[in-house]
Amino acid sequence: MLNSEKAVNRMSRRAAMLTIAGVAGTAGLLLFGYDKNSASASGGPPPTPIVPTPTPNLTLLTYRGHTSGIVSVVWSPGSQRVASSDQNGSIQVWNASTGKLNFVCANAPAGPTRLAWSANGKYIAGANGSNVYIWNGNTGALLKHFKVQSTGVTSLAFSPGGQRIATGSYDRTVQIWQVTTGAHLLTYNGHNVAGGAPVVSLSWSPNGTQIVSSSSLLGGSGESSTSVKVWNTTTGKDVFVYDASHPSNAVAWSPSGSLIASEKYVNGSETIQLWSPKNSSGYGLIISDPLSVQKIAWAPSSQYVAFVLSSYQGVDPRSRVEILSAAGKSFMLDYTGHQPNVRDVAWSPDGSRLASGADDKTVQIWQAPT
């Protein structure tokens, strides 16, 4: 359980930006300039370049290739491309710097598809209904299609090595599959108990030996069973139970492996719980907000946590992405560039940018804090 809960000190967006800019240097310069005082009038040393500092929250690119609301966004391992899916079933891969479309995934199913991109870059996976599709990450050619759960997939993630894929579903199980053959490897039934709820989020440990998974009715009520568990990906046995009393909409394992982030609604307040996968010790980042956390994404450095705040009941103009310091000491910034509702956020593997998608049919690339 938590040792303590530290309240997040919320600053205004302007104050947060100024704080970050003060640490990082002069913010917002888009071109190289020169310090004219560094050169003598008699032709001394050349002017010293003033290196532009990225401005956190700055929108770098807006991708408008979709004709319906965005469902999922994922980055290629090299941080050069983004794959995005929409409500109509189109899965598009495009250049994250120029917005130029590279290809559309072939034979994609109709309707919303959740996406994942393998760390080796070879595969893009999509979950639609009770099916998983595997596409070539460089061409979009369909490589494999297999049926997984009869009640529909809610979440999916590649193993760190890219050879296995885990899927969570409405039937309250997590399944592990071999990517290239579709062979079933393991079923985890830790959430499949009386009073349980669908498995809505899962994340692999960086070494691939464990998974953290969570269950929730996503805004509903009635579930009473354990909602967050860490378990072994070879045996399917529980390593430990983190939370036995609260549903959790989202979980994410930090790239460093030292922390897990999970959403929790406690006493009328949304929180991001940060805790050790070894002994569950940690603390909570309190978010005093009427909206629900629906997605969590770690910075590659494991220093920041980004998350989507959105509404289950309908369009809410307050829907946005927020970033918090993983140290639990201060509010960093929020990103409100979308029209609501925001549906997904993903951090680029090089740590420089984030991609977010919303019901406004756009994917936006924006500058990460440095």
Radius of gyration: 21 Å
Helix count from the secondary structure assignment? 1
Q: Determine the CATH topology.
A: Methylamine Dehydrogenase, Chain H
CATH hierarchy: architecture: 7 Propeller
State the share of residues found in helices, binned by percent: under 10%
* Global mean pLDDT: 84
Q: Reading side by side through the largest sheet, how are the strands ordered?
A: 1-24-23-22-21
Instruction: Give the low-confidence spans.
Output: 1-52
CATH homologous superfamily caption: YVTN repeat-like/Quinoprotein amine dehydrogenase
- What is the beta-strand fraction? over 45%
The overall number of domains is 1
Question: Helix/strand/pairing class, anyone?
Answer: mainly beta
The count of DSSP E runs of length 2 or more, i.e. the number of strands, is 31
Taking the sheet with the most strands, its summary is: 5 strands, mixed
Q: What is the CATH domain class?
A: Mainly Beta
The end-to-end distance, rounded to whole angstroms, is 31 Å
Shape: globular
Domain Translation initiation factor beta propellor-like: 198-308
WD repeats: 63-104, 146-187, 335-370
Keywords: Repeat, WD repeat
Protein name: Translation initiation factor beta propellor-like domain-containing protein
